[in-house]
Design goal:
Length: 598
């Protein structure tokens, strides 16, 4: 038992290898260890240990994890794209024990019932997945319908700090544009409104990542002697013999341990991939599992023909709209992010600001029928097909953030940001290897806004207009802090004034020419909202599936995937909650297959 930066020489073989100690890997390994403490398990994580790291424990540090050069994240860059006005899409992902759960926004957000219904997979129905969601959590909010868990390892609480004026003002503005306040948009029921957020924090305001809540307690309790965790080490490939996974090849991560050499560890019973939507496909392809054409081009001998690997990448696509405000420095994170307050003093005093992720409301919204009609006939057809008769399915998720999302030292005054993202994009991307080695470049293209019909851009046109009408009806609004689209002279959309009573504000009128300008502006500003998924789908192989309902990789025995890459289709939420439910479900599947806990 132990947590290592260098694996002891006497650990040459274990029963189960968990490749990736991220959000799901920590859960799976811990549940397997509970089922049979005699089972030898090795977790291999490429990032560093997160134990009691203040930048992990305190949610207020979230913005440092998405900044360029972030210490605990890896940044993936897509190619320059005509769909993004020549820009490159970028995507940071967690690179630390606990993965995304150690660096994300700690926002508690569940998928819709219709999302799980759309999977159409035995054993993965909405009610079955709800049971696993509840298994993870101890919910500290109202639950009159009994839709939440109350004795799980992860606490769900309201932040100890709230920016009350921003929160109340945004909610009032939502009401003014026709959306209600809802007590709970996470009970797998109807939405189309806004709720005051709950977060992955305990009642004391500490982050609830899966490493701290699942893995570290078992490493320290003396009851799990065969649970081993190796950090700062990269899995290069899975060893496959006679169509069975028998181990992995890994190396010390050169970011932390330069000059190290590769080493092999054998797995007697199972190898479980938990490296995420961008990490799992390249490892499988380097192992010889994937599309024969991709592997031939990369110089990797084929072990199993599974063409869906790395294919049909999905994400959520968002824009951050920054506004000037009359908020005080005590009502935003700007001073904290700009280091204008002493962080050591805040920690010494256990300041409640440290528990705040800057977000106090999340809304899931649908357009009206007239707004849908205004987006054109092609969009109307897609709405009728995918949304109209599924009333719990939102088109946008939006939240107010109490800060300037970039470097706040470059601006003066206090800001708030409305972050809006489309929940079910039509665009698809890919992630593949280009060569046999771990250092060969990755071919990653998120495909942002690339759908041929331009549906995703149309969604963003509606989102731009809707978020602006909300902002203009907020008492704290004092003007825009982003560059307006270059609307033509005389356009009613070209000037946004912050004046007059909010009750008297009328919606801005847009012309067809304005919409064309807006579409191009969106292509210059939209980006990933950090929710990569669906690159190793749970689906029939002939439908680009990679795993079956037991999470077994097609064509290879003893090789499993238990991360967010297995999603058959997109989900209407931040992805952490679904990742945790997948991990709990996966652990039960593996426990049964391994004959544990009997």
């Amino acid at each position: 038992m132990g947590l290592y930066t260098k694996l002891p020489n006497d650990i040459q073989e274990v029963d189960v290898i968990v490749a990736g100690g991220g959000a799901t890997g920590c859960v799976v390994a811990s549940r397997l260890a509970d089922a049979d403490p005699a089972l030898s398990i090795l977790v291999i994580e490429s990032g560093i240990n997160n134990y009691n790291d203040p930048m992990v424990v305190h949610p207020a540090y979230f913005y440092s994890h998405i900044a360029p050069g972030a210490k605990y994240a890896l940044s993936y860059q897509g190619p320059k794209s005509e769909h993004l006005a020549g820009r490159q899409a970028s995507l940071p992902v967690g690179h630390i024990l606990g993965g995304g759960s150690s660096v994300n926004m700690v926002l508690y957000s569940r998928a819709q019932r219709s999302d799980y219904e759309a999977w159409k997979t035995p054993g993965w129905s909405p009610d079955e997945m709800l049971a696993y969601m509840n298994k993870t959590e101890t919910y500290h909010g109202p639950d009159p319908e009994g839709r939440h868990g109350h004795d799980g390892p992860i606490h769900i609480s309201p932040s100890k700090f709230r920016s009350h004026r921003l929160m109340d003002d945004f909610m009032a503005a939502m009401n003014r544009v026709g959306y209600p306040e809802l007590e709970d948009i996470n009970k797998m029921g109807p939405t189309n409104g806004a709720m005051r957020t709950m977060s992955y924090i305990d009642p004391e305001g500490r982050r609830q990542d899966t490493a701290h809540m699942y893995l570290h307690p078992r490493l320290q309790d003396g009851k799990h002697p065969n649970l081993h965790v190796l950090v700062e080490s990269q899995v290069e490939r899975v060893l496959i013999e006679n169509q069975k996974a028998v181990g992995v090849v890994y190396r010390p991560n050169p970011l932390y341990q330069p000059g190290g050499s590769s080493r092999t560890v054998k797995a007697k019973r199972m190898v479980i991939m938990n490296c995420g939507a961008l990490g799992t496909p390249p490892i499988l392809e380097r192992s010889g599992v994937g599309d024969p054409k991709i592997l031939e081009r990369a110089g990797v001998p084929l072990k199993a023909d599974v063409p869906g690997i790395g294919h049909e990448y999905e994400d959520h696509q968002g824009v951050m709209y920054v506004y000037k405000s009359n908020l005080t420095p005590e009502e935003t994170l700007d001073n904290f992010n700009a280091l204008r307050v002493d962080h050591d003093v805040l920690m010494k005093n256990k300041d409640t600001l440290l528990s705040w992720n800057s977000v106090d409301i999340q809304a899931k919204l649908r357009p009206t029928e007239s707004e849908v009609a205004g987006l054109g006939q092609e969009f109307q057809e897609i709405w009728n097909r995918d949304f109209k008769d599924i009333p719990d399915k939102p088109m946008m998720i939006i939240s107010p953030c109490g800060c300037f999302p970039g470097d706040p030292s470059t601006v003066s005054g206090q800001h708030f940001t409305l972050v809006g993202w489309n929940v079910y994009p039509e665009s698809r991307g890919h992630v593949h290897i280009t060569g046999p080695g771990i250092d060969d470049p990755i071919d990653f293209d998120p495909g942002t806004l690339s759908d041929p019909q331009g549906t995703d851009v149309k969604q963003h046109v509606w989102m731009y207009k809707k978020q602006l009408e909300i902002a203009r009806r907020m008492e704290v609004f004092k003007g825009i802090a982003f560059d307006l689209p270059p609307f033509p002279s005389g356009s009613k959309a070209a000037s946004i004034e912050a004046s007059g009573p909010v009750a008297d504000i009328k919606d801005i009128e847009y012309t067809a020419e304005d919409d064309k300008v807006l579409e191009q502006w969106i292509r210059g500003h939209a980006n990933s909202i950090w929710h990569p998924m669906a690159t190793c789908k749970m689906a029939p192989k002939e439908k680009n599936g990679v795993v079956d309902p037991t999470l077994s990789v097609y064509g290879i025995q003893g090789l499993k995937i238990a991360d967010i890459s297995i999603l058959p289709s997109n989900i209407g939420c931040n992805i952490c909650n679904t990742s945790l439910a997948i991990a709990e479900k996966a652990a039960d599947i593996f426990i049964q297959e391994l004959g544990l806990g009997k």
